[in-house]
């Protein structure tokens, strides 16, 4: 009997000790879970603060598509070596001048010299239009020979232009309005299209060996006959029917003024810049040359997005 009582007492004591140990373990586990949750919450809060810090530092406008950041493209074409009219002096110098400035502004610049065939001009423009799709800024600049037909439609010429009759204008030339239409459909946020080409129709006095423009004065321009997309600025080196100077130095007054404008593109909107181009060229030419512009562009539009978004 005593033995039985002793065994019951031992069992009760053992069970009590086991329950106490389980309770202790459960409390320790609760403490560990609570500690983990606190540590995890602290970690998440720290990560959240780091993420907020990163977002503030990058300062990206999430309302705008990501493709606009940093994509700036330019195509510059300069034709000097004309075969059937007097060669030009400064067209290539002008595009090289602009190339350096645009590279410093972060543009991906393509320079093409002495394009000899109409089909190649069209191919370059089509290719550039694809490249400029959804870009932040797009720039096209052509310097070379050109003229207008009797309908006031402007054309730019490759170096193999050889005008025997008026039909040859459209046969050799690329319609300026088609260039504008193609490039403005690229949907870049801002598109700048510039033509430094002959403006009037000197065909009545033109024959092989006579220049459409010479090294001291050249006749440039065209007239807009196409609706442009919003945020497209088209600039011409002179007004219709007016003369434009090629320049006594290494660059034309228009190219020099455009280069000065581009150098200030971080501080001033485009329309202000090209108002300044007009003033500078008029001053340099003693009032004989007056650049003109066309397009649908907002007054506060900048060439570069980070300036436009101020």
Explain the overall architecture:
The protein is built from 8 helices and 11 strands. It has a single domain (67-308), classed as Rossmann fold (3-Layer(aba) Sandwich), CATH 3.40.50. β4 and β5 form a beta hairpin. The protein is globular, with a radius of gyration of 35 Å. It is of the alpha/beta class and 310 residues long. The longest helix has 57 residues, at 2-58. Helices cover 42% and strands 16% of the residues. The model is unreliable at 2-6, 8-38, 46-68, 204-224 and 306-310 (pLDDT under 50). It has helices at residues 2-58, 91-104, 118-131, 167-172, 176-184, 253-263, 270-284, 305-308, and strands at residues 72-78, 108-113, 137-143, 146-148, 154-156, 174-175, 190-196, 218-219, 232-236, 243-244, 292-296. The strands form 3 sheets. A 6-stranded mixed beta sheet has the order 2-1-3-7-9-11, sandwiched between helices. It has a 3-stranded antiparallel beta sheet with strand order 4-5-6.
Question: What oligomeric assembly is this protein in?
Answer: single chain
**Major sheet:** 6 strands, mixed
Strand line-up in the sheet with most strands: 2-1-3-7-9-11
Query: What CATH first level would be assigned?
Result: Alpha Beta
Radius of gyration over all CA atoms, rounded: 35 Å
Low-confidence stretches: 2-6, 8-38, 46-68, 204-224, 306-310
Form type: globular
Q: Assess the beta-strand content as a share of residues.
A: 15-25%
Helix and strand content put the structural class at alpha/beta
């Amino acid at each position: 009997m005593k033995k039985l009582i002793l065994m019951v007492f031992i069992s009760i004591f053992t069970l009590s000790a086991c329950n106490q140990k389980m309770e202790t373990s459960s409390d320790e586990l609760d403490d560990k879970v609570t500690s983990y949750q606190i540590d995890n919450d602290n970690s998440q809060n720290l990560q959240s603060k780091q993420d907020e810090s990163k977002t503030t530092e990058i300062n990206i406008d999430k309302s705008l598509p990501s493709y606009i950041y940093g994509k700036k493209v330019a195509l510059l074409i300069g034709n000097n070596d004309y075969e059937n009219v007097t060669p030009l002096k400064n067209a290539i110098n002008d595009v090289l001048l602009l190339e350096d400035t645009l590279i410093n502004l972060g543009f991906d610049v393509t320079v093409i010299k002495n394009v000899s065939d109409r089909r190649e001009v069209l191919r370059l423009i089509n290719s550039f239009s694809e490249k400029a799709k959804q870009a932040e800024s797009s720039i096209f600049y052509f310097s070379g020979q050109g003229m207008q037909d009797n309908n006031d439609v402007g054309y730019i010429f490759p170096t193999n232009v050889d005008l025997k009759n008026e039909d040859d204008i459209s046969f050799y030339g690329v319609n300026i309005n088609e260039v504008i239409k193609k490039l403005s459909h690229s949907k870049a946020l801002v598109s700048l299209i510039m033509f430094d080409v002959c403006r009037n129709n000197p065909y009545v006095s033109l024959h092989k060996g006579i220049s459409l423009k010479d090294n001291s004065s050249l006749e440039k321009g065209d007239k807009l006959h196409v609706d442009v997309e919003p945020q497209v600025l088209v600039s011409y080196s002179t007004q219709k029917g007016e003369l434009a100077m090629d320049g006594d130095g290494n660059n034309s007054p228009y190219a020099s003024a455009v280069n000065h404008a581009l150098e200030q593109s971080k501080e001033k909107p485009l329309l202000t810049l090209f108002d300044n181009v007009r003033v500078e060229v008029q001053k340099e030419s003693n009032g004989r040359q007056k650049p003109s512009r066309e397009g649908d562009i907002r007054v506060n539009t900048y060439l570069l997005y980070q300036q436009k978004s101020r």
